[in-house]
Write a structure and sequence with these properties.
heterodimer, A: alpha/beta, Rossmann fold, five-stranded parallel β-sheet, B: alpha+beta, Beta-Lactamase, Helix Hairpins, five-stranded mixed β-sheet
Chain lengths: 154, 653
């Protein structure tokens, strides 16, 4: 784990993942990106359970959560994170395909830090991903304790 | 809970007015006539006359006693009962006196006025008891006492026994002039005088009291005459008996007159009451405590199909379907325990039974009637067949409506789920297609030949078109569901903003020669009205871009008749054939090939839906190649000051 900290990306859609990774790579976001495929896996990762029980104790700089995921959806993961005193300081950015539904209000009510629409137009999509990466992983100042843990507990 | 209605209320009836002078005149005339007759008669018939008068008095006081007792019992009043008790005691004593003093062959004279104390007592005692009893009754009436007649009677009897005992045991200690056995009965006229005065003073307490006063005067005179009597049947004694007889007669006549007046009143009241019952819109059945019908009105005959004679005196169960009959007498009994007005069997369906055996739903309300025959119950019965039918119909319709609403809600829910899925899951592949195409274009564009590049471009355009279509569709479907946030919206500001946005993003818009006239303030949802104007204005720009000098005119007018603002957007562009004007505002209806003007075919449908939700309508005019004008109307804001502005605006045009 390098000193820059890493981004946790939870998305079940391989195509979206590939596009998101490319967009981040294109901006040359230097931070490591950890990918999980659904909400359950995201929670396992954050709580260091199951296959992640031996992972490095540092928590991510930011969590990017797709809302529509199998097993445990993004909203449920968000709720878990924000209701856990150990995790609630981690910024969470919700990613969604559409404005449809009650999701925006719901996300903010649960304590999401940002809510980002995935545009169909890839150029816009890439811009959005880049901006998220740049803002949360590079510009955003985190509380000291979290910087420590995010930086590997040193 | 209402008090039982009294059919007859004696207190409220107009009693025959007591006319003092005519009463006195009558009494005087009869007394003079009788005295003249007596004086003309020979004095040797006096004993017989005495006997006749005594017997007459005996009969009179008996009848009077019965009369008072009857009236008192019926009205539940104590005063007549006390008087009746007094009369009963004097009647018994008079009877005993007559029985033991009479000698049929010679009249009363032979045995009267011996030294026999009991005989004298039976004669003198009632003379005292009568004014004393009447006076006591009067006093008790004045005190509003509830003393029972038995107690009252016992009191009088005790008094009499005491007086008799005293006269037997202590005659030597009683001064001669006080002795009740003395014919000089100075005390009784005085007693009657006092009673008469108080009867007159308290005459408001009961309507018989003036008559009592008159009676007291006559008895006073009679007893006073007795003072001058020296032998059993002398003139003074006869006059005294005559006075007493006239007094009692006056009382009886007054009572009879009252009774007849009351009877007439009662009949009149009953007739009135029957008339009322008869004219009531509902069927009314009056039932006694035994469950028998004592009255039915003509509506009852009509409703149940029976003649009156077939119902009166019969059990009310005759009108009730057999399955309810067994329980009914118990209901009747329960009602009579605590009779008060109430609807019958609240919450339970009641049925009536016609003569032909058919049943019909009824509503019944009960109220007690206090009558001469005791408490009766009047049942007012209403046929509610029609109401029941309407209720059932309403219930059925409501049920259907509820079902429909449920179905609709379910359909709505499904639709919502569908749009949610469509919004998310249909967009994802589009995003991927566009994403990969972009990568392809960035990294491999140079390696494709012209045809390959064309295909790639078409893929990207189509993807975007599809995304637009999807957004419009979702937007359109959402319009019917989102709640409107109504505010005051200044259309002039809104148009200026939209025009600025368009000019910033579309080169075509900058070529347009704009003319924006005065626009009103309306009440509506800002973002929805924004959509309307964006659609109409961008359409105007879009369809006029092929014209050398594109012009767009935006304006409004106010119609006083239907109090609506009409806003229009006019262009000099491609226009349309009026033949298809009805298709303009329908979903997916396009009048132009997409090659000429790209659009999804939903914009105007959105416009229509929004305007209709605001209570307005949309329409269009145009001709091919000569431009088009799109109109939409909106109701004026409900507040008065806005109306004023609208008038100024309208006048300014």
């Amino acid at each position: 784990m390098d000193k820059l900290g890493y981004i946790l990306l939870a998305d079940d859609n391989e195509d979206d993942l590939e596009l998101e990774m490319r967009a981040l790579a294109e901006y040359r976001v230097a931070n490591e990106i950890v990918i999980v495929r659904d909400g359950a896996e995201a929670l396992d990762f954050l709580y260091r359970r199951g296959e992640y029980s031996n992972r490095h104790p540092a928590q991510p700089l930011v969590v990017l959560l797709d809302i529509n995921m199998p097993k445990v959806n993004g909203l449920e993961v968000l709720e878990k994170i924000k209701n856990d005193p150990q995790l609630h300081q981690i910024p969470v950015v919700m990613l969604t395909s559409s404005r449809q539904g009650p999701d925006v209000e719901h996300c903010y009510a649960l304590g999401a830090n940002a809510y980002v629409l995935k545009p169909v137009d890839f150029t816009q999509f890439a811009d959005a991903v880049k901006t998220i990466g740049k803002f949360w992983a590079v510009l955003n100042e985190l509380p000291r304790t979290q910087v420590k843990s995010a930086a590997g507990g040193q | 809970m209402s008090a039982p209605a009294r059919i007859l209320d004696y207190k409220q009836q107009t009693a025959p007015k007591f006319r003092l002078f005519s009463a006195l005149g009558g009494v005087l005339a009869s007394a003079i006539l009788l005295s003249a007759a007596l004086l003309l008669a020979r004095s040797n018939y006096y004993p017989q006359v005495h006997l006749i008068l005594d017997m007459g008095l005996f009969v009179l006081s008996g009848v009077l006693g019965l009369f008072f007792w009857n009236v008192g019992g019926r009205l539940g009043q104590r005063f007549p009962q006390w008087v009746a008790t007094t009369l009963a005691i004097t009647w018994v004593l008079d009877g005993v006196h007559m029985a033991i003093t009479m000698d049929w062959s010679r009249g009363i004279e032979a045995t009267a006025l011996g030294a026999n104390l009991p005989l004298e007592t039976t004669w003198a005692l009632p003379t005292y008891i009568l004014p004393a009893g009447v006076g006591a009754s009067l006093w008790l009436l004045h005190r509003n006492s509830g003393l029972r007649p038995v107690q009252f009677g016992l009191g009088l009897v005790a008094l009499s026994v005491g007086v008799i005992a005293a006269s037997l045991v202590l005659p030597q200690y009683i001064p001669n002039w006080l002795s009740i056995t003395q014919p000089t009965l100075a005390l009784t006229p005085a007693l009657w005088m006092v009673v008469g005065v108080f009867c007159w003073r308290w005459r408001e307490a009961a309507r018989t009291l003036p008559w009592f006063a008159l009676m007291a005067v006559l008895l006073c005179l009679g007893d006073f005459a007795m003072v001058f009597s020296r032998v059993a049947s002398d003139t003074a004694s006869i006059l005294a008996h005559l006075g007493k007889f006239t007094g009692s007669l006056v009382m009886l006549i007054s009572k009879m007159q009252m009774a007849s007046t009351d009877l007439v009143e009662r009949l009149r009241t009953e007739a009135k009451f029957r008339g009322l019952l008869e004219s009531a819109p509902d069927a009314i059945v009056v039932v006694n405590a035994g469950g028998k019908m004592t009255f039915v009105n003509s509506q009852t005959e009509a409703l149940f199909g029976y003649k009156r004679d077939e119902l009166i005196g019969r059990g009310v169960e005759q009108l009730i379907p057999p399955r309810f009959r067994s329980a009914h007498p118990a209901h009747v009994r329960r009602f009579f325990v605590t009779p008060h007005a109430r609807p019958m069997s609240k919450g339970r369906d009641l049925s009536g039974l016609r003569r032909d055996g058919s049943e019909f739903p009824v509503e019944i309300s009960l109220s007690p009637l206090e009558t001469e025959e005791g408490v009766l119950v009047s049942a007012s019965i209403r046929d509610i067949t029609t109401r029941k039918q309407s209720e059932n119909e309403i219930r059925r319709l409501n049920h259907t409506l509820e079902e429909r609403a449920k179905e609709l809600a379910a359909a709505n829910k499904e639709l919502e789920a569908f749009t949610y899925t469509a919004a998310h899951d249909l967009r994802a592949p589009l995003r991927h297609m566009h994403g990969y195409s972009t990568f392809l274009k960035e990294s491999w564009y140079g390696r494709l030949d012209e045809e390959g590049r064309h295909f790639l471009d078409r893929i990207m355009t189509s993807t975007q078109g599809m995304a637009m279509l999807l957004d419009d569709l979702l937007n359109f479907s959402r319009l019917g569901r989102v709640e409107m946030q109504k505010h005051e919206v200044n259309l002039a500001d809104l148009v200026a903003r939209i025009r600025g946005d368009l000019e910033a993003s579309e080169p075509d818009a900058r070529r347009v020669k704009w003319e924006v006239r005065k626009l009103p303030e309306v009440e509506g949802d800002l973002s929805l009205l924004h959509q309307v104007l964006v659609n109409l204005i961008s359409n105007a720009v879009k369809y006029s871009r092929k014209v050398s000098e594109p012009r767009v005119l935006i304006g409004s007018q106010y119609d006083d008749d239907d109090e609506m603002f009409t806003v229009f957007v006019r262009d000099n562009g491609a226009g349309f054939d009026m033949e298809y004007k009805n298709k303009l505002f329908q979903v997916f209806q396009r009048l132009h090939r997409s090659k000429d003007f790209e659009r999804t075919g939903i914009g105007l449908a959105i416009v229509r839906r929004i305007v209709e939700r605001h209570g307005g309508r949309v329409w269009a005019e145009g001709a091919v190649g000569q431009g088009a004008t799109f109109y939409f109307s909106l109701p004026r804001p409900s507040r008065r000051q806005d109306y004023g502005q609208a008038r100024i605006h309208s006048a300014g045009r």
